[in-house]
Specification:
Number of helices: 10
Radius of gyration: 49 Å
CATH class of one domain: Alpha Beta
CATH architecture of one domain: 2-Layer Sandwich
Helix content: 40-55%
CATH topology of one domain: Heat Shock Protein 90
Number of strands: 14
Structural class: alpha+beta
Distance between the termini: 26 Å
């Protein structure tokens, strides 16, 4: 799984951002709802006052009409389709009847009273009823209606006062837009604060991560730093683990050395005892003893490498190893008029033990010089962000694909006349695998064999 998906910082920031978003949206909706209710309440109060004025001053006039003696003074009630209306309907027993009075603004399009409103008016006789409707000009209206009974022969009437809702709705929308802008800025500020808080709060964790990386890369032997009380026990445990790892490696080295001495001495005695004996049994003992010696060397080398590979923080300079091997082999093969050169190794470090790198590079370089016609080359470079490559080439006869596969098998020798045990390349393969690397065989541009070794490194 990729690092960003498992990032603690991303998880904390994302969780906080989600909660901040939910909280801000909830607060914005609540404030907008409260403001809308406040605007409608103000509108309802104004319409209720108009209804109360009409109710207090309404009286029957000629032709069965009912009109207020003091109509609302607002001139918009006299302007056609102005958005402010009042109206008086005759109230029958179970329904709202005809219009018996209205403002000039209504003109010939009365304010509608739906059946559901009729039932509410009748069931709540004498109480103001608020509802929404469409006005004479099809604009949305806020309406306050109240049913009353006039004294004398006036009878029961329904008084309506209505006002266009669009200005109120526009005011609510403006408030919502402004609120969204304010809360958006507020949310960005809060998000930045959360990111800063997380980065500051987790900075000791980052410092510990860097300290552990320094140990892994070989820049430090212990996890050093001033950590909070919550992390200091972890740092102490890591340092204890590092100390224990070094002790285990040292014990493994000691045991390997003791085993080498314990086995090699009896083997040397057997070889010396049969050195001057040409009998069949003596030759058999010598062959088996040589095989035992090779196997002991091989497995001791492998055990030592495995112990070294587990040592945290081990590293060495690739350049020093390559130059030492090239200089040594150059002197050895100078009598055969063969040369070996090294290039591109500056600034590279191997994340492992020096003797293991010497073992791998030495085997490859020795093979290259052994089979080269006149020249062998060691080239180094960066393979990827975690590994480097080391290519050993020669201008010799090279190998076929089948021979390359055979050469990597332990103990296989393609030329019995050449000196060696046949374990060189297999040892390189096993050492490389222990460190998480690999060995590849290919063709050299010079015509011979190219052995490419990929190993973990630091640049």
């Amino acid at each position: 799984m990729s690092a960003h998906r498992r990032s603690l910082v991303r998880r904390l920031v994302a969780t906080s951002a989600i909660w901040i978003l939910i909280a801000l949206v909830a607060v914005a909706l609540a404030l907008t709802t409260l403001f809308r209710q406040s605007v409608l309440r103000t509108l309802d109060d104004r319409l209720t006052a108009v209804v109360a004025n009409i109710v207090a001053t309404s009286e029957p006039v000629e032709n069965g009409a009912v009109l207020p003696s003091r109509p609302p003074p607002d001139p918009r009630y006299e302007r056609i389709f102005s958005g402010r209306y009042w109206q008086i309907n005759r109230l029958e027993e179970d329904a709202v009847g005809s219009v018996v009075g209205n403002s000039r603004s209504v003109w010939d399009e009365p304010v509608p009273v739906r059946p559901r409103v009729e039932r509410r008016v009748i069931n709540n006789f004498g109480q103001p009823i608020v509802y929404n409707a469409h006005g004479p000009d099809r604009q949305p209206l806020r309406v306050v209606a109240q049913a009353i009974e006039l004294p004398g022969e006036g009878g029961r009437i329904l008084v309506l006062a209505a006002e266009d809702r669009r200005p109120a709705d526009a005011e609510v929308r403006r408030f919502a837009i402004i609120s969204i802008g304010i809360f958006l800025v507020f949310g960005i500020v809060l998000a930045a604060g959360v990111i800063l808080q997380v980065r500051v709060g987790l900075s000791p964790v980052f410092r510990m991560r860097d300290a552990v990386a320094d140990v892994r890369e070989g820049r430090s032997r212990r996890v050093e730093g001033d950590f909070p009380v919550e992390l200091q026990p972890l740092g102490d445990e890591l340092n204890s683990l590092l100390d224990h790892s070094r002790e285990v490696v040292e014990r493994a080295r000691t045991h390997v050395g003791n085993l080498a001495h314990a086995l090699k001495t009896p083997i040397a005695v057997l070889m010396n005892e049969t050195a001057n004996d040409d009998s069949e049994s003596a030759r058999l003992v010598r062959r088996q003893t040589e095989t035992m010696s090779r196997q002991v060397d091989h497995h001791l080398r492998r055990a030592r490498a495995a112990a070294h590979a587990k040592a945290i923080g081990a590293q060495c300079s690739v350049g020093d190893v390559v130059e030492d091997i090239a200089r040594t082999l150059g002197k050895i093969y100078a009598r055969q008029e063969k040369a070996i050169s090294a290039e591109g190794h500056q600034g590279l470090s191997f994340r492992g033990e020096r003797q293991d790198l010497e073992e791998m590079v030495g085997n490859l370089a020795d093979n290259a010089c052994k089979w080269a016609s006149r020249r062998a080359t060691i080239r180094c470079g960066v393979e990827d962000e975690a590994n480097f490559f080391l290519i050993v080439e020669d201008d010799g006869p090279g190998m076929s694909q089948e021979q390359r596969e055979q050469a990597l098998q332990r103990g296989v020798r393609l030329d019995e006349e050449a000196p060696g045990t046949g374990l060189g390349l297999s040892i390189v393969v096993e050492l490389a695998r222990i460190y998480g690397g690999e060995l590849e065989l290919g063709d050299s541009p010079a015509g011979g064999l190219a052995a490419k070794l990929i190993l973990p490194g630091r640049f």
